[in-house]
Amino acid sequence: MKPLGIGLIGTGYMGKCHALAWNAVKTVFGDVERPRLIHLAEANAELAAKRASEFGFAKATADWRDLIADPDVDVVSVTTPNQFHPEMAIAALEAGKHVWCEKPMAPAYADAEKMLAAARASGRVAVLGYNYIQNPMMRQIKTLIGEGAIGTVNHIRVEMDEDFMADPEAFFYWKSELASGYGALDDFSVHPLSLLWYLFGHVEAVITDMVKPYADRPLKEGGRRNVENHDGANVLMRLGGGISAVLMANRSAWGRKGRIALQIFGSKGSIAYDQERMNEFDLYQADGRGSEQGYRKILAAPAHHPYDRFIPAPGHGLGFNDLKIIECHELIHAISGAPSSIVTFEDGLRIEKSVHAMAKSFHERRWIEIA
Ligand code: NAD
User: Fold this and answer.
1) Quick check: CB of 10 below 6 Å from ligand 1?
2) What residues contact residue 218 under an 8 Å CB cut-off, 6+ apart?
3) pLDDT score, position 1
4) Is the pTM above the cut of 0.70?
5) Is the CB of 194 under 6 A from ligand 1?
6) Strands 244-250 and 259-266
């Protein structure tokens, strides 16, 4: 496969993460052509030029449509706020580009459907940024569950908490606008849903409560603006095979920095993982040892592929950005037609459907079955 030409829209938190991945994927994995960093778009020309120089892109623009029109661009990374995803992803697909779009797909379900329709019509690879499924620890957890290490899984608890919106005096920004979505549901819950999908399949029924801890926030320019969505959500869920699950998400949880705490309970044991300690998980296997029973800590090591591609020594640890490098590698494999582990727009739409069912169940105060 010829080297892929890359376009990057947005250079904030996730834009830099994608840029790091495109820069590193060849060095880490070796088995792909080094991507060519062609074109970068930002909201204004000055920032675009600065970031292009820092990230190593040849061209910069303040109009993302220039990048879409660039014949040298084969893949477009969409890393802008949620409300821009549909227009940018669809334009890229219609121009014949592959798309790597950050989660969630879109605030409105109808727009997410249009994104999938565009992906299908284009025949291009369209994937979403669900990086947490790429952790080698998560792969090992999936393997262990598949081998029956904890028996038949019957209950799951997953909590996603951060505190970047915990301060009631934190400035209002796009994440509190209804235009960006429901709040914690599409900002956070989609990540645990991607993990549940990866390990067990899609959620089948939900009932939700949503929480808005602060009614308004200060504006940078003075005054205050009403918070338009919910920073927290608590969801009871049913998965296939009779598995019950609880999901709690909160963007205003003081003290929690990057928590995705996943507990999986089975008939013969349990597994406990937390993204804040992403290089380990705890495994409990009921083995009749009575008072000596306890969790065993499994530390990330070269045996947990593709940890070995980064570091030859066990216990040294990968980081958040490394998950994007792995995701980037999976995306390149998908483009070349090889098997890959990614969340396509197809599965992404089902995740969106679950999120909208959660919001509906909150508004209607009842369980919602998801077809
Ligand atoms: P951010 O605010 O840090 O960055 C967004 C960038 O987009 C900014 O630099 C902004 O100037 C730029 N931008 C806005 N409008 C633009 C336009 N019209 N043209 C070009 N650039 C434009 O936001 P973020 O935290 O990086 O979030 C971006 C997306 O990534 C969101 O959809 C979010 O949900 C997702 N996200 C994913 C993860 C993950 O773990 N996968 C983590 C954080 C955010």
Assistant:
1) yes
2) 169, 171, 172, 224
3) 80
4) yes
5) no
6) unpaired
Based on the number of CB atoms within 10 Å of its own CB, is 7 exposed (0-12), middle (13-18) or buried (19 or more)?
buried
β pairing state of 59-61 and 36-41: parallel
Q: Is the CB of 11 inside a 6 Å radius of any atom of ligand 1?
A: yes
Domains along the sequence of the chain with CATH: 5-124 (3.40.50.720), 135-314+344-369 (3.30.360.10)
| pLDDT tens digits for range 268-314 | 999 999 999 999 999 999 988 878 899 999 999 999 999 999 999 99
Where residue 13 falls among pLDDT bands split at 50, 70, 90?
very high
Residue among 67, 77, 79 to mutate when testing ligand 1 (max atoms within 8 A of CB) = 79
**Which of 145, 157, 158, 138 shows the shortest CA–CA distance to 266?**
145
Instruction: For residue 215, give both structure tokens.
Output: 């009614």
41 CA: nearest ligand 1 atom:
20
Beta strand pairing call for 280-285 and 269-274: antiparallel
**Ligand 1 and 129: CB distance under 6 A:** yes
Question: What's the rounded Cα separation, in Å, for the pair 180 and 272?
Answer: 32
- Output the average pLDDT for the chain: 97
Do strands 153-161 and 126-128 pair parallel, antiparallel, or not at all (unpaired)? unpaired
Q: Which atom of ligand 1 is nearest to the CA of 129?
A: 41
